[in-house]
Amino acid sequence: MSELVTLLVQATAILGGLGLAVGVMLIVASKKFKVETNPLVDEIVEVLPGANCGACGYAGCADFAERVVNEGAPINGCPVGGFDVAKEIGGILGQEVSEGEEQYPFVKCNGGLNCVDRFEYVGFEDCKAVMLLSDGEKGCNYGCTGRGTCVRACPFDALSIGEDRLPHVNKNLCTSCGLCIASCPNDILEFARESEQVHVLCMSHDKGKAVKASCTVGCIGCKICEKNCPEEAITVTNFLAVIDQEKCTACGICVEKCPQNTIAIR
Amino acid sequence: MVEKALFAIFMDGIFIKNFLLIQFLGLCSFVGVTKDVKSAAGMSGAVVFVMALASTVSYLIYTYILVPTKMEFLDLISFIVVIAALVQLVEFVVRKNIPSLYRSLGIYLPLITTNCAVLGVVLLNVNSEYNFMQSVVFGISAGLGYTIVMLMMAAIRERSTFVNVPSSIRGLPQAFFIATMLSMAFVNYFWVIPI
User: How far is it, in rounded angstroms, from Cα B168 to Cα A30?
Assistant: First the structure.
């Protein structure tokens, strides 16, 4: 009996001693390696939407809050929260916030069914997978492959592939987080402000002949829009028209004159 | 027991006694963290570090505390305490000194506390009666074996998302098929003549 008691006492002592030693060591370590956190950071994290989408350019909401407090990142940097969240963060930090203009992803291609296919693709329905096969089956290597990688990347169901095999953005659901833009392997999507009315719906830098052979609505670089624009807002570089949104007044002359119907007012 | 060469123990840990594919330890991280190479690499790095540290510390505790007091039967529980404390300590140090690494490892560091592979290394060290150097070498090589398999699995899984398979197989079942085939390849190392 006494043997058992000694054994029990010894075992308890050793395990207890080990636990105590480890515990003391951890306490000392936690004191020594303590990381100071700012209470303001926690408050801002509370206010943020918590989507952790990374659209602000930082690794998640907590990181954004830290940068706002310590490194002066823009208060209105969270596109998901929008103006309301920016105002609340401004309230916590005691700063005034002005409302920025809303911007939504915009599809810079009108190819879809207007663009011919070079071959028939049978395989995994994903833009990145299609792109692996000689840059996609479309005649135009710059255009939208229409397999919906952006649709799957959107956590808010704001995108859908329409019957024209092009993505469409539902502005009511869109939070401008930019995940679809990041996911597109062909860089078709781009942020466009609400006030920016006139857009070139093409990405192709191919010469006019090659564009005409593959797509009925592609930019052929004919410079008719550049010559006709009264504001001189359009320049054609590398066989593709680019609109300077600062100068554009949305008069609509270029839209009328474009022989390929590439430019559109929305 | 025949004294084993360090090199043989090293190769043992990586291939013949591979923790994931031969011993089936640490499978939760094997299936859970191999969706992309980056996170698999982060997890592997942390595991190599903790396995090497745990082998060292647990050898010292076993030889200098448990054996002299004839308390060998306490090995399991004391090793668990040691590993948990080690992971905590590593977390403190990394968080203080390398915040960027802490942020990228963040979720995986505490996961290692519950990683049975780490405990497996420590217990195998004791059961095989390895001496200090052998324990450390086995700890490191087990971690390296884990790393190799994790990276292979992650690379294959990254590419296999583009494979057109029936929807009932897509995802985890596909991962299990891949794991099976990888495991069959590693079983062949049994026929390697011991050095």
Answer: 48
